[in-house]
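Morning!

This is the sequence you dropped in the shared folder:
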Amino acid sequence: ASATSSDGALKVSTVSSVELQNVRQREIKHIQQQIAVLARYAGIDLRQDGRLAESRQANSKQLQTNIDNAAAEFGDELITGVQPRFDARKARQFDSYWNWARQDAYEWIQQTIAECITGVATDVDVSDKERLQQLQNRADLQLVQMLAGTAKVLSDSNNDVLQPAIELAQVLHDACKSTLSQLPVYRELSGLMQPKTYISASGEASYTEIPRASERTWTDYIGHMSDDSHHDIPPHIHLCEKSKNRQWSYDKQFSSTYYDGLSDISQQGTSFVGRTALVTGCGRGSIGAEIVRSLLMGGAKVLATSSSYSRQTTLFFEDMYRKHGSRGSELIVVPFNQGSVQDIDSLVTFVFGQLGWDLDYVFPFAAVSDIGSTVDNLGSHSELALRVMLTNVLRLLGSIKLAKTKYNSAGRPALVVIPLSPNHGDFGGDGLYGESKIALETTFNRWKSEMWRGHISIAGAVIGWTRGTGLMSANNLVAEAIENAGVRTFSPREMAFNIIGLLNPRVARVAHRQPVWADFSGGLNQLTQLNAIVDSERSRIKVTCE
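The structure's back. Tokens below.
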């Protein structure tokens, strides 16, 4: 404001910034009061967003506290280890058996032609019985026609040098033609091996496997494994019956039926055409991988899961199918974490819903190694292993049981082979492995008490010392000493052969009426000083190397 003084000078009056600020604040307060009045009149809650933000902030703090507590309680390995990995979009399907059969036959003949030209081949060689059987398993009319045409082209060349190749093409043609009306079969023709530990002159210990001289055929193997001539000691592999005191003991008659089935596999072979199977824990070198191989040879459709899904994984299974996939067989590979409940639900929905399969066989063989964990340092990793090998095995069975009901396939039970073990803490330092295997034995009672019949059948396999698997490879060096102590150790292929024997219809029919207990321990459960023998052999190897 301004005014004029008595002497005519202009006088200016000033207002302090404080007063202006006060006026401005009163105006703002007045406006806020007006807004509040109008909001109340209109039924609008001006504090709604503020209260929501405050609530979210409080919830966020509580959630962070819960996460911190869960991480401290369960540990990072368990939390990370239960994350889902299943993704149906990543499923890889292999079913072109016919293509691989043509390629294999062509390569076989071309290799012989090359050997004829260089003078290496002077006679037809079909000594590779396993390769010939695999070709017969994949034979179809088009392959037979291709082989006939190849033999004719070679014959028309009038080149005597190519005679071995001509004869090979004709032998392959005749062999494949003879099986066109037959079902593909799983028949084991590979060699039987035994463990051998060497210590070099430089003090380096190495492990290898050599042919087992006493078992040149699988008939020899069956004979040795079924031998019950030792007093009070059951055979290395056998089936059991449950006594009145609820203990499982050697059943000679039932075992004889089982051995007959093994003999059928080794001599005539067995077919799985029209059968579907789910196999978890089937990575390279595992028992599960050998089971997948056997099922594919027999013409089954197999869903194999991988917790380490990668290009290397898919190439491994592609090569397996290329070599062993039979006529009508199919292999689907998906990423899957058996430690995840979400993955279990997604996997079963994928099988029964998206694929439209029913399951005839289930092999929940996924496992987690837990070396070095003892009672005074059990941690997050041990709990993850327990979840994978016990808790979620039961959840998987439950999910399959529900799916059987939902999709109206009750009455066609899935035969589930439960992986048991004679190791109930005998090794020590393997976390909760023994506890998980003992707890799985409850499935034999649950089958009856929870009415699984018609949905799921149980065959428990007590798996003995199996060389070279992820759980046992660290013990390969002492396997020879274990055999010297009277225990039979097995290769993954031998153990898979034992397990496939449980799928024999005569055994499976019993499993559909009551659970079957199969002891494939190789006498390991009879060895009372296991840990002492292992420690002694390790010490001997160490001293010798030094």
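Headline: The chain has 19 helices and 14 strands.

More detail when I'm at my desk.
O.
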